[in-house]
Amino acid sequence: RRLVSRGFTPRRIAALEPRLREIAEESLDRIAARGEMDLQRDLSIPLPVTAIAELLGVETRRIADFKRWSDALAVGVGGMSQEWSLDDVLRAFDEMADYIEQTHHVFTREQLPRLAGLLDKTLQAHRERHGDMLERLKRTFISLKTDIEMHLAKEEQILFPLIRQIEAYQQGQGPIPEVHCGTVADPISRM
């Protein structure tokens, strides 16, 4: 929730307005072609889901998956529903973990060294005039980089393996997972 709320500053919302209008118009075009409308299914759910997915960098072709994963996360953290079995929730968690590792973690691990290199080059080129400011920026970047790398490691070494162990157990393909952190919601809330 904190990650998503940071993206919804007044300035960011204003910048999103043209894309939100486009998404709404695309939805309305599909509705018009069908000749009927369910306001919730056809507009009030797809519009924010698509906007949030795009803010988080989810590819357009994966937005339906993102919606399903988000629903599963809400059910998994908030409690079971008649629409979702435990197997459905765990399968969606596993798919989401795979997606995050294969896209966002890979991208982040590629980009952090690239950004560090660009910062070093900038520091070398402009040290004389802006050295103090660039050194502070570099220290801040290094701290941020370390925090991000630790977060990725926690997801890959604690959270995602736990999700996979729970799913394997639920499918009868593994032992009872050793849950040292209470529930899956606990490590999520601490990250």
Structural class: mainly alpha
Radius of gyration computed on alpha carbons: 21 Å
Supply the number of helical segments: 7
* Oligomer state of the chains in this structure: single chain
Give the CA-based shape: flat
Average pLDDT reading: 83
Provide an overview of this structure.
The chain has 191 residues and is mainly α. The chain has 7 helices and no strands. The radius of gyration is 21 Å and the shape is flat. The protein starts with a helix and ends with a helix.
Write the layout of secondary structure elements.
Elements lengths: L1 H5 L3 H25 L4 H6 L1 H10 L7 H16 L7 H85 L14 H6 L1
Short recap of the structure:
By secondary structure, the protein is mostly helical. The chain has helices at 2-6, 10-34, 39-44, 46-55, 63-78, 86-170, 185-190. Helix 2 packs across helix 4 and helix 5 crosses helix 6.
Which short descriptors sum up this protein?
191 residues; mainly alpha; 7 helices
